[in-house]
TrEMBL record, chains A, B:
Residues 9-77 form the HTH gntR-type domain. It comes from Streptomyces fimbriatus. PROSITE patterns: HTH_GNTR (PS50949). It comes from the Bacteria. Keywords: DNA-binding, Transcription, Transcription regulation. The lineage of its organism: Bacteria, Bacillati, Actinomycetota, Actinomycetes, Kitasatosporales. This is GntR family transcriptional regulator. CDD domains: WHTH_GntR. Pfam families: GntR, UTRA. SUPFAM superfamilies: Chorismate lyase-like (SSF64288), Winged helix' DNA-binding domain (SSF46785). InterPro entries: Bact_HTH_transcr_reg (IPR050679), Chorismate_lyase_/UTRA_dom_sf (IPR028978), Tscrpt_reg_HTH_GntR (IPR000524), UTRA (IPR011663), WH-like_DNA-bd_sf (IPR036388), WH_DNA-bd_sf (IPR036390).
Amino acid sequence: MANTDDDRRPKYQRIADSLREAIQSGEYGPGDRLPGENDLMATYGVARMTARQALSVLRDEGVAEARKGAGVFVRAFRPLRRRGIQRLSQERWGNGRSIWSADIEDRALEVDQVTVSEEVAPDRIGAVLDLAEDETVCVRRRRFVLDGKPVLLSTSYLPASVVAGSAITQEDTGPGGTYARLAELGYKPAHFREEIRSRMPSKDEAAQLGMSAGTPVVLVCRTAFTDEGRPVEINEMTLDAASYILEYDFDA
Amino acid sequence: MANTDDDRRPKYQRIADSLREAIQSGEYGPGDRLPGENDLMATYGVARMTARQALSVLRDEGVAEARKGAGVFVRAFRPLRRRGIQRLSQERWGNGRSIWSADIEDRALEVDQVTVSEEVAPDRIGAVLDLAEDETVCVRRRRFVLDGKPVLLSTSYLPASVVAGSAITQEDTGPGGTYARLAELGYKPAHFREEIRSRMPSKDEAAQLGMSAGTPVVLVCRTAFTDEGRPVEINEMTLDAASYILEYDFDA
């Protein structure tokens, strides 16, 4: 779209726009150092404060990140591709693999901060799982760390009455994970619903995911249903948006 | 998760956390006015600056928004539910409805800022559509406005050689829209890929979508393929994250 208002942009915005264009065109690649305040002052003939504002626009957008004492760098973006539909196909968890292995290619994924507990279901969970008041759920919390960087927080809720005594109540759910165990219990997941939102992280989430400023989280809420339509698991996930591309493939 | 470090949180953070809990529990609903600086000073015995910081935490997270002269309010969140798979089913566009009508229920959706032009394909588009260098695309830009609020920017790219002379090159594509016309031209969309990312908006995007501070955009890039696997359209969409829930339903 033609923009004849260009000259009305404040100076710091014009500098930020031209740096952004240089990044989008590939002149500065992921991880490259951007011109510093002194460079921008010399190139554009502006005051230090203007140069600083220009760089802070790119930081606020999440396009660039500051490294203490080293300068401002183009955010290195090598996201995971999370294929929503293929990764949950039964052939995958049906023969003992983790659904996560679909996403990580050759990269090192670790799971940490695993906790398993039995808790009264939060209202929103009880409503979807159709539980009686005060009925308990098995709650599985964990964090996924890729190449040393935390990328995802996950909390699963399953009706305690369904999973009692199974490996789902243990830290290690065994080959094929929770979905393979649910199948053995007679509650094979046949249908999934994923709901996706995005917002800024809370301070806690930003700390747990080691996130840079100016980066949102993506929330994925997955509900697994048996072929009779009974919901048997809700998994609430919080993803560092800079670490993921979500992909869904489907027919018309 | 037990948090024994609670007492180490700064005061403004403790106040923000307790307001957030009150919002999440429903004590303050969407659109409700939150306690003001004076209320927080009295309730918590803190200085004005601390009260102000507490409210700004919630604004930065996008949980609350300030209205000039009126106070700080819980962000009214009545998002659109965008059902990624059902909305693109052939029965829908196959009989003359717009795919968008699947999402809007009883609400008033307007399309504005429609432009149609023929342009040399940007590199990333030419690469996916498998075009020769300098080959042109038909570019359809528009903005979607729901209940008076802009919610989505959309830019579609189609090979000019495919759509030349059809209603796709007009502002009004006719009943069933672009996909119905592609079918008539012998390029019926049979398969879709949607890729989803999230980041903070640029200043331009925030202005075009009338977004509040602390709100990210969701990017959806959809590619439509014929049943021979030929890509015939790329649609790059920019969504106000506070206005949408994306939903995908699929079988194991």
